[in-house]
Write a structure and sequence with these properties.
This protein has 81 residues and is mainly alpha-helical. It has three helices and no strands. It starts with 28 loop residues before the first helix and ends with a helix.
Length: 81
């Protein structure tokens, strides 16, 4: 007996729809200095005092982390005044 030919169709997986991903762009001291209106040296001192971790030889943050640090440092500035 001969085999009956069957048509095989490739099953496609549906495209994944996910929530918008957080920006993978890394921000550093320059971004924080611009947002706070401070010198980059001063921002580095504040980061050291806050215990922020370095990635290698420099500081790198995601957008959310950078915004949280701006808020944190802004509050400290107001308290010191």
């Amino acid at each position: 007996m001969a085999k009956v030919a069957t048509k095989k169709t490739a099953s496609k997986t549906p495209a994944k729809t996910s929530a918008p991903k957080e920006s993978t762009k890394k921000l550093g001291v320059g971004y924080l200095a611009d947002k706070l209106g401070l010198d980059p040296f001063t921002v580095r001192v504040k980061l050291r005092d806050a215990g922020a971790e370095k990635t290698g030889r420099s500081y790198e943050f995601t957008q959310k982390q950078a915004d949280d640090l701006v808020k944190k440092f802004s509050k400290k500035e107001k308290k010191e005044d």
